[in-house]
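fyi for ur records
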Amino acid sequence: MHNEMEVRFLSLSGNEGFARAAAAAFAAQMNPGIEELSDIRTAVSEAVTNAIIHGYDQNRDCIVTMQMEIEDDDLTVIVRDDGCGIGDIELARKPFFTSKPELERSGMGFSVMEAFMDEVDVCSEVGKGTVVTMRKRIRHAN
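which gave:
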């Protein structure tokens, strides 16, 4: 089976819940287990939150794009922002590192994505934005 979708939404913190729900609804057609669905929702939440808080520095007038694709038992989720970008991806992926300590961020966003998805790729360019690509094989798919 092949299917894909794309949604664009303003960088409002309230849209993080929308992104989680949209991702879960799209993935549901693969017949995932409850744990797999929860993993997808959590990873999407972290990626979208990073785009809003770090990519756009909470500028509410910017656009976050989420694309999803199903190919047989594989789910791909891409979260994209056109924000400030990440200067040192390796450092940003280290547990407990945060560029916003004043906001009491835990610095666990990428670690959480990696824990819940099978693969996480991060591409970023300073001043141009970040693309986070996450993949998960759905083991309960029909």
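The chain has four helices and five strands. thats all i got for now
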